[in-house]
Design goal:
The chain is α+β, with helices and mostly antiparallel strands and 425 residues long. The chain contains 12 helices and 19 strands. It has a domain of 262 residues: PPM-type phosphatase domain (Phosphatase 2c, domain 1, 4-Layer Sandwich), CATH 3.60.40.
Length: 425
Amino acid sequence: MLPSIGGAGGAKGMDSTSRGPSKGLWHEGTAIAPELKVGQALGRCYPREFTSPLPFEVAGLLSQHGAVVKFSPGMGFGGGKTRPSLEPKENQDRALVTYPFAGNASQVLFMVADGHGEKGALAAEQACTILGQLLAADMRTSDPLRHSADDVQQGFCTCFEEANRRLHNTGALQTSSGGATMSVALLSGRTMWTAWAGDSRMVVAKSLKRTEELSRDHTCCIPAETMRMKQAGGIVMTNEHTGVTRVCVSAGPDSDDVYTLNMSRSLGDKFFHDYGGVIATPEVRSRELVDDDKVLILASDGVWEHVESKDASEALMARHSNGNDASQMCKALMDLAMRRWKERNPAYRDDISAVVVDIPKLLEILKGQSQAAGSSQEPRTGTKQQQQQQRRASNDLPSGTGGTPLGGVNSNSTAQRRVAAYKRQ
């Protein structure tokens, strides 16, 4: 048997469209993408109770469960023929925004995780929670402008690897297949850091014809990745019919099953990390945002499977030029991805999640009033003792638990004032 991790399978015993919290806010300052209501107008695509720390016109975030064809008996004379229907499957994606991040109203964090395997939804949700807390607790990533680029890069790597270690120690993920890709964009003023493991891509749209990919997909097709996995004992195979390359590992010493994975980096996926050379170490990049950076896109591979980066950029920039806001652009990208799945693979649709950000509007909020007054960065909120307690609390979190809000101690007051000032403009 070759059960394919990253395919249509979902966690057993869970609601087929389980989304975790029904409301947008996980905790203070953090919102998780709600389930898109297919076929409804934009103004109704968010649940009524959904709230976000950023205005909807600044950042849009949506998710849509996948679907797989199932066959049921027909109702005609004599039983009739079986008829196919596209049935929903569990949504294993998670996408979120945290503002303010780490107690700083000039910082915002975006994350997209794409879960896979039997416990993919659990892996994605825990990965977002644990990694977010670690990033907020590490001085190098919680306050990157005060550290060297090398230190910040090492900070991201440390947090990703520690989050992966904690996932491996999560009971349900120790004996079951389950992991997640992870893509993170951290904006501190005009400086943007991107870190990722897996194939949830990040893109900046500059104009109708100009697109910049901020990440590369970590797949088993990359020669250096393939070499590492083979050296660690993984078997890398290419399907001669589909052309897809995957790493294969045994499901255990007493099992005849073999697990396969098409990613070379991820969080979780204990079998693949132990025996197949898959790693959680992210690639990390930084850049300054410039005036022609218009739209930031973070999306799971359910979007990128049938939508090229340039196609997404062109579609959203056309809408941006016509005055569409971030939430309208986000829904347009979701609709485009779902149309492509229906046209090219009507028997299956992967989970689809996206975060779309209007960069110029976001920068208006991040710069706030302090920068206009000549200050480059506002201090953290809360006393020094409170901040130290927050970091210790996050570092001491047991595997798979909740914890300190990513926004920090009393950190939402300045952020709320900035958002209110933006809305009054």
